[in-house]
Design goal:
115 residues; mainly beta; 4-stranded antiparallel β-sheet
Amino acid sequence: QVQLVESGGGLVQPGGSLRLSCAASGSIFSISDMGWYRQTPGKQREPVARITYGGSTTYADSVKGRFTISRDNAKNTVYLQMNSLKPEDTAVYYCDAWAYNRQYWGQGTQVTVSS
């Protein structure tokens, strides 16, 4: 079992920045890829960014150049640095991790971009 706990969400003005963190615990030695998804009411959860254990990254087109995903394997933590935030980035952001061919999810953290 893997437990994921996100933090760092909140209210920010357009153009501002936030840094999300996701700390993993439990069977952490089995974790391979980690990533971030987001979801707004009435819509499907969509992938935002992903990082492999070795540090290779992929991003959704909508966040390329603005968001940066990173991970600290020693701390079992993945981060999402979000810059130049737009109102359309408003969503609940979820951390995920793959372990033993199973996807685990955090509880989500709200990000609201509004003036």
